[in-house]
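Exercise 7.
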Amino acid sequence: MSATTAQSDAAEAAVRALYEDLLGAWNRRDAPAYAALFAPDGALIGFDGSQVPGAEVEDHLTPIFADHPTASYVWQVREVRVPAEGVALLRAIVGMVPPGGTDLNPAANAVQSLVAEHRSGAWRVVLFHNTPAQHHGHPERVEQHTDELRRVLRRSTTDR
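Solution. The predicted structure, written as tokens, is:
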């Protein structure tokens, strides 16, 4: 294995872990932990289209977590690509389980993209984009998306 391949593999693993930490912080409703994963000059684009500078993510999420019961993410990473040293792109599909629920709400299905940059010895989110996956005119795609994530949800429930 070449040094470049080893670096790329290490970057891919680190960015997957960064993404899992991000969604894990959301699922725990932990705004400080979620925000800590962003570069200060990064950006969050939410499901509703809100655009939040990285330095303001904690202030944005704190009242959401305090005032609204949030659903929990279930996810499947589709791809991690390292186009240049110190930069990575992750693409994933997600679904959400409503508070107190045991199944996904297909209306909350989304596609997520995360761009990460390696700075000062750590990977940080420079862009996290969460887009609704409504698949207008293609209900079979909504069903495929939901079914795939239901399998992930079942596996995670079985693993506990």
